[in-house]
Amino acid sequence: MEKKFIILYAISVFVWLACRQQSMRQAASPLQSLRIGMTYTEVLQTVGFPDTIIHVGTSLDEYGSQTKIDEWWYGPHELVVLVNDTVNAIDLDAQASQQRIRHIMDSARRAEERLRNPR
Fold it and tell me: Model's pTM, two decimal places?
């Protein structure tokens, strides 16, 4: 019983430290002042130029309207997604988001495999 308590306590401390570290990283981010719908010039005025710009691409819809998507990276973890030069998404920890997405996709694949190959 005592061993279970120690393990539970250790897990609790680990989770608390992980959450605290993430909140401290996010609290220090200038990207917190950005809002969805801001123009790229407002972003530049508010937080400055990004470290990296990735032009994801452009596409035409069935009505001939063009959509341009850019990713603005501030450091290795912070991401602003611009669609037609307007902020569409802000991610203060893109690396963690990518890991969550990868986990969801892997879980879906495993579930699909179980459905195909029941025991």
Answer: 0.65
